[in-house]
Amino acid sequence: MEYRAVHPLARARRVAGLSQEQLAAGVRAAAARRGLRSGTDASRVRKWERGVQPDDDSQTYIAEALGLPANLIDGPWPVWLPLTDTGVVPLGPHTPVPALREALRTVDRRTFLTVSSAALITLTADWASAGAATAVPDQLVAASDLADVLETTARQLAAADPAHHPHTTRLLREHLVTVTDLLERGRQGAATRHRLHTLAADIANTLAWRRFDSGDTAHAAQYWIAALHNSHATGDTDRGAGLISDLAYQAAWQGDHALAGQLLNHALTRATHPAARSLLQLRLARTHAARHESRPALRALAAAEKHLGQAAVDRPAWCQWLSDADLAVDSGQALLDLGDTARAHQLITAGERLLPTSRGKTRGIFLAYRAASHLDLKEPEAAAATAAQSLQLARRIHAPRCLRLVEDLLPRFQPYQHAPGVKELLHLAAA
Fold first, then answer.
1. Does residue 165 belong to any structural domain of this protein?
2. Residue 111 clears pLDDT 60, i.e. is over it
3. Which of 399, 421, 335 is nearest to 373 (CA)?
4. What is the DSSP string of 24-77?
């Protein structure tokens, strides 16, 4: 399935189930509600769909007739119209820029944006069966002053303190707009385009995680999809597998373990680096365990441990962080879902202690996992103390996803109101 350049108005009209005449009638009705008159008819709609630009008032009426929010009109015609009816730009040789445009144009439209699971599965299946793009050898990557500046500042913005995320996220998005504009013009040599596609994937991935952490899962998916298109353009299959595994991680977080499993199995068909395969198998184990599929979960855990043992220090930058601590804690979480509570608690506790202090957000999540394992062992005092640690850390480093984990645990403390530390935890959470 390949992306085709259908005019966005024609696509949006079809998604709304409207003929050209029906859309014209909707435009006239929108004008009439304002005490105005519009002469729009099917012929004029056809002209718009062939490239004629409607005036500003007509664009407002079009949005209303299509059932789209008025604040959607925040860019030039027809940029503000959605590119797809599924939220997923299909994979193809010319799709990296359309995928980036789709992610950028929908960034503030949570009122109507959805991402189709079926289209997402189709995208990853197409990726799994596609031939790899030709990667540009490192020694051929030519210097570009603007690319140098964009790469350097993007790294600095991505690494900035979480307290500054509202500002750095806005700046990263503007960087992505610039990179997308450069790719769309297509005036660079192959080596510079390779760098720009890599940078687009990096920035889109950072923005995806920030959207996911804030609970905006539809827009996170859009950014990961855009990153996948751009990593595919560079021929980096391990990176593509990692991006698909991030989509799967989000699906699992939302409780859609069937979707997560399908995405991870597609990703595993082309991942080659041991570190990449370890991460994929670890996430697959969590998905199987959540569905109480004991044997597949244990096989995946064994594979994850084996691959991590084979992974040298020289590993892809996007999975440099994967460590024995992650293996221990995620293995513990899988065992917790499978009912092996004592062994799960041991692994989660050991993994949390192995984690470097620099990984604060991960530590907060691991502490929340450890609190859950204490509750499973009916140890409310230890659970309350650990949950309080997680909560305080999450507030200090601005980690909303970690906060939600602790908040989800709070109802489980209700039967233990008189246990030491529980009332203090509940007061802390309410503050």
1. yes
2. no
3. 335
4. HHHHHHHHHTTT------HHHHHHHHTTPPPPHHHHHHHHHHHT--GGG--SST
**Of the candidates 59, 81, 103, which is a domain's last residue?**
81
Q: Is residue 139 scored above 60 in pLDDT?
A: no
- Residue that terminates a domain, selected from 255, 272, 289: 272
Q: Is residue 1 helix, strand or coil?
A: coil
Structure tokens at 276: 């990449």
Q: In the Cβ-directed half-sphere of 60, how many Cα atoms lie within 13 Å?
A: 9
- Amino acid sitting at position 323: S
Other beta carbons less than 10 A from residue 212's beta carbon: 23
Number of domains in the chain: 2
User: Does residue 122 fall inside a structural domain?
Assistant: yes
Model's pTM, two decimal places?
Answer: 0.80
Handedness of CA 408, 409, 410, 415 (dihedral sign): positive
With cut-offs at 50, 70 and 90, classify the pLDDT of residue 3. Answer: very low
Q: How many CB atoms lie within 10 A of CB 273?
A: 21
Helix, coil or strand: residue 109: coil
pLDDT > 90 in the chain, percent: 64
